[in-house]
Amino acid sequence: MKTFTTLLFSITLCFAGVYDYPYLVHSKDNYEETIIDKQLMYNEFETIIRFEPIFFNPSTNIMTQESKVYLDEVKKVYEQYAHKTLFLSIIGHTDQVQTDIEKVNQSWWYPSYTNDLTQESSQKIALSYAQDTQKVLTDKGIPKNIMIIEQRSGFDNLYSTEIEEGRNSNYRAMVSLYVKKDLSADSDGDGVIDIKDKCPMTPQGHNVDDKGCSTILNLTVHYNVNSHMLREDSFSQLQKVLKFMKENKQFKVLLYGHASNEGTHLKNQILSEKRALSIRKYLIDEGIVSSRIATYGKSSSEPLFSNKTEEGREKNRRVEIKLY
User: Fold this and answer.
1) I need a surface site. Which of 24, 90, 275, 304 has the fewest CB within 10 A?
2) 9-180 carries CATH number 3.40.50.1010
């Protein structure tokens, strides 16, 4: 494989919108526009794997032997994810298509640079690269119905056009494997699906609330009106949290500060943050490292009780403590 190719492949955690579809000049550039073609743009993905370029000889338009062998690696990675919903994107490319003026200018400075590509021939060649790659992968057992075939002509040079090796290497196909995110997945097995789980990776055997947070030691600390100072009756609760965190160093804590609806939203936002930070400071002062503590201010947006009564407002002035 080319010596300047640095990675076998790279794995990236991604969401919708990373697919290459938007940069196609015209929809007709797609070899076959299908439902799964659209899904690559609008779905969420657990993983996207972008493979090393599949190179072609620009003189013969035949796939190099090294690239044919490398496609075995694509097959191996496919097999690792075959139990999931997958899409395989194959995009053909050529070197850039030169204008007549570019050919004249560059033939003067770079005699070996010029090529005979036209927009039409470039599209045809790039499409053939994608189709040839698809055939090899299909012959290796990867289902054709998960593949999307496209061409990008000479719009996306991957290598330098100032040296012959770089120009020749732009004749290629790019293969990417999209692993669709399972929206019903429950990674930690706590009964709350991942998209609703506010406390991922809950240890096995823990009971959880409807947000997926462990109920082993989830507590609420209350505050006086317009105050973020810890009350005396809060310390017995905080001692339980402190003791648990010192004995269970694998646990972290989420601190959600809340306010009643007196005052403006901004004022309540600041107050709710200060309330969460007051507990953070207490835990750090008692020896808990800061990396195990996360704080969030919720203003008055999540009342547990009616703010129409003083009793309800009092109960809404709180910090919720979630261990996970």
Assistant:
1) 304
2) no
> Could you identify the residue written with the tokens 């609760």?
237
Q: Looking at domain 217-323, which CATH architecture does it have?
A: 2-Layer Sandwich (3.30)
The predicted model scores a pTM of 0.50
Rounded to 10 degrees, the C-alpha dihedral 193/219/228/226 comes to 80
d(CA 113, CA 105): 10
What is the reported pLDDT for 76?
95
**pLDDT tens digits, 87-99:** 999 999 998 876 6
For residue 278, pLDDT beyond 90: yes
Q: List the one residue out of 295, 300, 296, 294 whose CA is nearest residue 266.
A: 300
DSSP letter string, 128-186: HHHHHHHHHHHHTT--GGGEEEEE-TTS---S-SSSHHHHHHTSEEEEEEEEE--TT--
Are the beta carbons of 231 and 222 closer than 8 angstroms? Answer: yes
Greatest alpha-carbon span in the chain:
86
Query: Is residue 13 predicted with pLDDT exceeding 60?
Result: no
Two domains, one topology: 9-180 and 217-323: yes
Within 13 Å of residue 184, how many CA atoms lie on the same side as its CB? 2
Calculated CA dihedral for residues 44, 45, 50, 56, nearest 10 degrees: -60
Spatial contact of 159 and 169, defined as CB atoms under 8 Å apart: yes
* Other residues' Cβ atoms within 10 Å of the Cβ of residue 151: 26
Three-class secondary structure of residue 213 per DSSP: coil
